[in-house]
Amino acid sequence: MPHPSRPRRLLALATDNWPARAYLGVVGVSFAAMFLSPESPVATAPLVLTAPLSLLGIVLPFGPGTEGGGTAQGLATGSWTVWVVLCALVNAAVIGALMTRKSAAPSTTTPATRSARLRDLLAPAVDNWPARVYLAAVTASVVFFLCAAYVLPDPGFAGVWPLITTAPLSFVPLAVSIPAELPDLSWLSPPLFAAGCALCGLVNAVLLGRLAHRLRVREAHPAV
Fold first, then answer.
1. In which band, very low, low, confident or very high, does the pLDDT at 55 lie, cut at 50, 70 and 90?
2. What's the CA angle centered on 119, arms 188 and 7, to 5 degrees?
3. Quick one: pLDDT at residue 136?
4. pTM of the model
5. CA geometry: angle at 73 spanning 67 and 76, to 5°?
6. Helices marked H in 62-151
7. Residue 21 half-sphere exposure, CB side, CA atoms within 13 Å?
8. pLDDT digits (tens, 9 = 90+) for 82-100
9. Which of 2, 23, 163, 172 has the least CB density, counted as fewest CB within 10 Å?
10. What Å distances lie between residue 131 and 8, 112, 128, 142, 178, CA to CA?
């Protein structure tokens, strides 16, 4: 039998387990809510639920708010919807990849075994090209933010880039760093936010690497 195509492997990971299907169901409900109530805060739910890839869509020249009306606006909204659906499928595939657990024989826990387990846990973040490219993007966004915060006279919205690159987990360090903006702790806010985003990026890279591994496994052992 010929090897299944990569899109088919991705689709299989996104649909062959209950957690991934439940996630897609929640995204589907959020789309319905968005179209039923486009002016309410719930309209942003599909974008948040499909982060971080969906948030990169802000650089695309189309979306629900595209001006022009009529056919142009309809095509723009449709293209944006396709983009967000693809992002949802990738996230569901990541969830599907996490559902596959490696069997391991029980062993005595020692500092050496804990260190080995940590290396094994973090290995997917650096042993494949998709995760490495993602980590490079995270590093660039965090470095840019720190340079803007400490070098540029007006950092502007530099924090948006690490926030987008490491979403959705990056909303946690954002919430933690906001209280640090008080006068006595203002010096702590930029490094705290940057460190939090870097950690979130590492977690996302591990998940992306797990997905890359699962796609390779399915390619090496196609279903007959």
1. confident
2. 95
3. 94
4. 0.68
5. 105
6. 70-98, 111-122, 129-150
7. 5
8. 888 999 999 898 888 877 6
9. 2
10. 21, 26, 6, 16, 29
